[in-house]
Amino acid sequence: MIHTFAITGKYVFMSERDTNPRSALKVNPGVEQPSVINPDAIRQHARRKPAIPGENEFLAGILEGNRTILGKAITLIESNLPAHQQLAQQIIEKCLPHRCKSFRVGITGVPGVGKSTFIEAIGTHLIGKGHKLAVLAIDPSSRKSKGSILGDKTRMEQLSANANAFIRPSPSAGTLGGVARKTRETIVLCEAAGYDIIFIETVGVGQSETAVYDMADLFLLLMLAGAGDELQGIKRGIMEMADLVLINKAERDNIPRAQLAKAQLVNALHYFPPTESGWQPRVETCSAITGDGIGEAWEIMTDYLNFAMNKGFFAKKRHDQDQRIMMHSVEELLLDKFYHDPRVMEQIQLLEEGVKLNRFSPYVAAQKLIEAYLSASQSK
Asked: Residue 182 and residue 55: Cα distance in Å, rounded?
């Protein structure tokens, strides 16, 4: 056996006999390197790490209106860890009997229309009337990094500092329509915490409106004057869902343009079929900066609420929403079970490679995955 050692830039070759203890050339044993992690620091960190409260502690904090506990409970709901999901569902079940009667308002509009400024203005107005307001702001997640800015609290400084307001920005996390997957469960916790008005601010990129409509009592569309939104809103079908259209930023020199946009939208609404509730959608102007039209906007919302409750449409819409939520939850659970099935996980990479090499079409690959999942389910 030959041993090679580097000494002062030169290599020295040693044979087996050169390692004899009597030899002048001797190799001393090396020194064992210590761990780069301090075990004392690990133990101290473990002691400092707070334990997750139990479901009863969460319930008590939520019912007391503790915003910190409420935020932690929502974090559990948004977590994908199985242990967190199990605890979150237990918290939701305990909160269900304690829900207050709330008025849910879905708010949408193109980016830059002033949704956050409007919410702060009308939210301050509502808190002054004795209401408790929860704002669930949904931020779009990047398709590449999966990250979100979550900056709505910085845009609602006064409202976020108010003890009777709770603002929760959440990432859309790639959910279709830009609405956070767990927003519906979050609403349950907010209602248990005593928030009687809940605003759901959506991304406003064109497809989030349907998802918000399925969880709100009133659908509010914010628009700008002179930005082409009059026709764009009609083409997207958003106007068909809107119960109230507000043209924001109607201040100073923009007032004439806002009035013109209002007239155009009022005329456009005549071409739409009657709404299911029988309510005639309203169009008004407002300014979140000056406060003009904010009080009037809330009066229209309360008029709609009284109208819907007297007609029985309020209860009917909530019932229909619960049914859609049930079926949507079935779809989510099936997808989750499908992608976590061992046989599907084993086949999916092979089939993806086959599609990449044009061995078979994506539709055939999908059928093979479904067959693998069904065969696995039948064998259990």
From this structure: 18
- The one-letter code for the residue type at 352 is E
Helices assigned H by DSSP within the chain: 39-48, 55-63, 67-78, 82-95, 115-128, 152-155, 157-160, 183-192, 208-213, 229-236, 255-269, 294-311, 313-339, 342-356, 362-379
Parallel, antiparallel or unpaired: strands 103-108 and 133-139: unpaired
SS3 351: helix
- Residues 224-236: b if buried by 16+ CB within 10 A, e if exposed: bbeeebbeebbee
Rounded Cα distance, 334 and 322, in Å? 18
Q: Phi first, then psi: give them for residue 15, nearest 5 degrees.
A: -90, 175
Quickly tell me which residue has 């990094």 as its tokens: 145
Q: Which has the closest alpha carbon to 136: 118, 153, 121, 157?
A: 153
Tell me the β-bridge partners of 104: 198
Burial 238-260 (b: 16+ CB within 10 A, else e): bbbbbbbbbbbbbbeebeebbee
Per residue in 16-28, pLDDT (tens digit) is 444 555 655 665 6
Is residue 238 within 8 Å of residue 209, measured between CB atoms?
Answer: yes
Are residues 179 and 172 in contact, defined by beta-carbon separation less than 8 angstroms? yes
How far is the first Cα of the chain from the last one, in angstroms, to the nearest whole number?
57
- Which among 296, 286, 241 is positioned nearest to 261, based on CA atoms? 286
Q: Mind listing the pLDDT tens digit for each residue in 268-324?
A: 888 888 889 999 999 999 999 999 999 999 999 999 999 999 999 999 999 998 888
Q: Which DSSP letter does residue 248 get?
A: -
Round to whole Å and give the CA distance between 49 and 51.
6
* pTM score: 0.78
Listed residue (199, 198, 204) closest to 224, CA to CA: 204
